[in-house]
Amino acid sequence: MSSLIHFTLDPFSRRLRLACAEYGVVVELIEEDPWNPSAAIYEINPAGTVPIFLAGADAPICGVEAIGEFLEETRSARISLIPGTSFERAEVRRLVSWFDGKFYAEVSEPMITEKLIRRFLPRANGGGGPDTARVRQAMSNLREHLDYVSYLADRRAWLAGEQLSMADLAAAAHLSVIDYFDDVPWFRYPVAKSWYQRMKSRPSFRPLLSDSIRGVAPGAHYADLDF
Amino acid sequence: MSSLIHFTLDPFSRRLRLACAEYGVVVELIEEDPWNPSAAIYEINPAGTVPIFLAGADAPICGVEAIGEFLEETRSARISLIPGTSFERAEVRRLVSWFDGKFYAEVSEPMITEKLIRRFLPRANGGGGPDTARVRQAMSNLREHLDYVSYLADRRAWLAGEQLSMADLAAAAHLSVIDYFDDVPWFRYPVAKSWYQRMKSRPSFRPLLSDSIRGVAPGAHYADLDF
Question: pTM for the full model?
């Protein structure tokens, strides 16, 4: 069996949990706290980061981009998550980079750092209460990004085109983390909400909805399909 | 003919200039200053960033990941830059992400911002002299990364394995920008230097060696093959 070294609220790990489920790849999950990476992690991945995919006894595959492309190359017989022509595939990858680069830097990273990581860090390493100015800025960025998700979802069946793709998984993975904190103002974004509702209803999403981090309970509607 | 909207000292644009030359794709270069993106750029790429690849009259392709994979999918008849088995391809992509993610955040971005972008920004938007503490930190990070490049170059013919790959192009693109500023202490890293010398000697590299930005001359040895 394959394994995925992941962290429950890491959006990159979540994207790959969704991808594995969509591709039909059963993985054993191995949890790794990002605020306290083990020495063993550095031996597998010199960057010291998750996700890491272990395909049995083969060499480990490190990093969300490498793992995503690897799964598409080797496990996409049933469903492709980078579907279509080379131009359509480029649009999927553009949006994946948008969410993993821009959305992560402007929304996910500050929210995860301020609302979660700081709780678990010693005070000397930046532990303590959240920097409220950073959270406010991230929330303002989130609203702009929800406009963009709405724009895409309004014009296309799925975010990158007419088929479900890795772009939907990336977007949903990031938004699901913010939703865990109960910080997505869904009521203002009905089109984005309806797209997220479709994502949330997929069998691949179900395991994510029962996730919980000790000391940080999910928002009241996190697991509801009708939110 | 295809075009590439780029910025001369942007490492992502440089990687694609190298990739196009290696694949044998002739591109017209269209320069875009990142500190003052034109309205037209936002119409092509909502992120407002370069590189953007225009394959004739077809839809534009935005972002270094999407363009890199697109070129590999459509233009790699002569040479593959993501070569080998799925595992070998994953290693190429792991290292590309390393340089475009980690190296960029820890070295290229602070160096480019402090040594270049600030010169061209109005004072109200952060223009002025470099933040020397940020430059010092980036230089310290650079030394760690040169250790890693040396480690890889010592064990393999090329950084990701036995063949030239996109990983070499990504690493060389980032290092070439720091080298433009004359800030790479090559003499301390003979193995990394010898790898960079091989990269610099490739015909694909030649156009980059004659680059120049107004007001910021390249370092004395920037264009020398014997540095």
Answer: 0.97
